[in-house]
Amino acid sequence: MKNITVSSKDAGQRVDRFIMKTFVHLPKSLMHKEIRKKNIKVNRKRCMPQQILNEGDVLELYLKDDVLQIKEKHYDFLKASTDLDIIYEDDNIILMNKKVGVLCHPDGKDYVDNLVARLKRYLYEKGEWSPEHSVFIPSLANRIDRNTGGIVIGAKNALALKTINDKIKSREIEKFYLSVVHGRMPKQSETLKAYLVKDEKKNMVSITDSRVNHSKEIITQYSVLDYYDDASLLEVKLLTGRTHQIRAHLAHIGHPLYGDGKYAADKGRYRQALYSYRLKFSFTDDENALAYLNGREFQAENIRLLKDFKERKFI
Fold first, then answer.
1. Which pLDDT band, with edges at 50, 70 and 90, does 135 fall under?
2. Any residues with CB less than 8 A from the CB of 130 and at least 6 apart, and which?
3. Do 218 and 245 meet the contact criterion of CB atoms below 8 Å apart?
4. Rg value, the chain, Cα
5. What pTM, to 2 d.p., does this model score?
């Protein structure tokens, strides 16, 4: 005999489907027979195979132990780290402060532990999501390079993901970065315009001052926050969002990021001084699913880049 209390992530399922998913050695024909014989009950009452289970219901199975072995669930995301720095969370989205060195999505070498896997584990263990009971898979609406830290937006449902993607595309989510660059900037603030061409094979981009074949316009805005010696601390706002835009654009004007092994003279170093530290929801309408976030601003805390700059480690 076995009792199982239905959790929030298992609620909403039919009795027969829940039983078949849970018990690996219980034949379907035997399950239906035992339901008819009232050897399988819900809350001490007779149940039907198509009956819907609710959270807190108690499923009672008066059967032999050999058919009541619970099926073990193996999910790769449960091997991911539980280290998740949450800045904000509601029923639709979650804002996470991704650490430098963490991948947003799996690649060939780091398949198990990445930000989206950590998000899945977090929501699964909270009982908000399960791959067995949901068609939607928790997703990231934006991504940041492995060696750049900062705010990543996670979507908990399909409508939230579509809304965020639409608002990013229409530039209604403002993203601000901190960066430390070589040299002192010529102006206190400036809006830079140029053109970017991506080389997929090399995973690099090149910048030109005029339009060329396959180029896309980029607009990068910066303000100087502080400086010392040969280092300038900038707040950078992306008005377009292209691959490696900040790194390549600032290098193009002669002020590459410290630690940038691709676009600076810092060859062999791949911890560029760049952090996506702030974002603001600036919607132009009040009729979308996330309208309650309009005008709100969020910022990451405990940023190592700022500490290193104050301690003058960029030399």
1. confident
2. 9, 10, 124
3. yes
4. 26
5. 0.78
Residue 201 — pLDDT band, cuts 50, 70, 90? confident
Angle at 153 between CA 149 and CA 158, to 5 degrees: 150
Spatial distance between the Cα atoms of 26 and 38, rounded to a whole number of angstroms: 16
The reported pLDDT for the residue numbered 268 is: 58
Nearest to 149 by CA among 315, 280, 307: 307
What is the model's pLDDT at position 8?
77
pLDDT digits (tens, 9 = 90+) for 207-255: 999 999 999 999 999 999 999 999 999 999 999 989 999 999 999 999 9
- Closest alpha carbon to 6 in 52, 62, 58, 60: 58
Give the H or E element holding residue 273: none
Residues 6+ apart with CB under 8 A from 248: 196, 204, 205, 206, 207, 263
Residue 177 contacts residue 275 (beta carbons within 8 Å): yes
Residues 6+ apart with CB under 8 A from 214: 197, 198
Query: At 171, which amino acid appears?
Result: R
Instruction: Please give the backbone phi and psi of residue 184, each rounded to the nearest 5 degrees, phi first.
Output: -100, 130
Q: Identify the pLDDT of residue 292.
A: 97
Residue 194 neighbours by CB distance under 10 Å: 19
